[in-house]
Amino acid sequence: MRPAVDSGEAGTLFQLEAVKGYSLWDESFLIQAVAHSEASGDVFARAFTVEMYAHYLGANGQYIRALSHNLIFSYFNCLIIQMVSNPSKGVPSFISP
Question: Where do the H-state alpha helices sit in 1-97?
Answer without folding.
Answer: 2-6, 10-24, 27-40, 43-59, 63-68, 71-85
